[in-house]
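Example record for the data management plan.
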Amino acid sequence: MRARMNNPAFVLPDAMKGIGAIFKAVDQGGISHGVTNLFNRLNAAIKEPAGTSCT
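Corresponding structural encoding:
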């Protein structure tokens, strides 16, 4: 399946600075690696086409 739009992080000016700041804040916030790993798996499952693995 083809994306309907390009990744906004690459389209919007200065978006990568904001995204980097969010990642830095999450990393410094003390969230366990297990929780971030769970979030990453759920996020990958949303992005993956039906019937494919997200591992």
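Summary line stored alongside the record: Residues 44 and 54 are 6 Å apart (CA to CA).
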